[in-house]
Write a structure and sequence with these properties.
With 175 residues, the chain is mostly helical. The chain has 10 helices and no strands.
Length: 175
């Protein structure tokens, strides 16, 4: 599919199109033929506001390269990831308030969360691990190479088994 081409229309020509439409009451087709423009271009010119809209609000104080540098610094190491945002900004030589820094990181798709605590081993789990280790201590390296570790592979579940409402007996083709 070919990319859509946009016609370059000068400010003077836009004014002429709008004048013919709104003052002379010409049709879109008449204007398109007279100005040698496509019908859709004439329609777009007439539908657009006569003066372009100004951006609202105050422009953001941190530009894109600065924001990217902040994120790169914050993700550089574990120490920087745990560092408060103000200290990361100070390391980059950027002065901004906490709210501005949070917004800058959010604009770049970076967010922080409290780390989840790893649960401790209780007596039962500790005993299960010890039993497993003692039961398999005589295994050779070749025996261990035959084991498939679930944290090192993908397990693909057939699509029908993923639907919790459908049991194995209700699959198509099942007896």
């Amino acid at each position: 599919m070919e990319a859509e081409k946009r016609e370059c229309v000068s400010y003077k020509q836009r004014c002429a199109v709008r004048t013919l439409r709104f003052s002379a009451n010409w049709t879109y087709r008449q204007i398109a033929e007279e100005q040698k423009l496509s019908l859709s271009t004439v329609f777009d010119i007439c539908q657009a506001p006569s003066t372009p809209k100004k951006p609202k609000g105050r422009p953001f104080s941190l530009d894109t390269p600065t924001r990217r540098r902040l994120v790169a610094t914050a993700t550089m190491s574990a120490a920087y990831r745990r560092m408060p945002l103000r200290e990361v900004a100070a390391a980059c030589g950027v002065q901004a308030c906490e709210k501005t820094l949070r917004k800058a990181f959010r604009m770049e798709g970076y967010s922080r969360r409290v780390a989840r605590k790893k649960p401790f081993l209780d007596e039962r789990k500790r005993g299960l691990r010890l039993d497993f280790a003692q039961a398999h201590r005589h295994w050779t390296k070749d025996d261990w190479r035959q084991v498939i570790w679930t944290d090192e592979c993908y397990v693909l579940v057939p699509r029908l088994l993923r639907n919790p409402r459908m049991s194995a007996g209700s699959q198509p083709g099942a007896l």
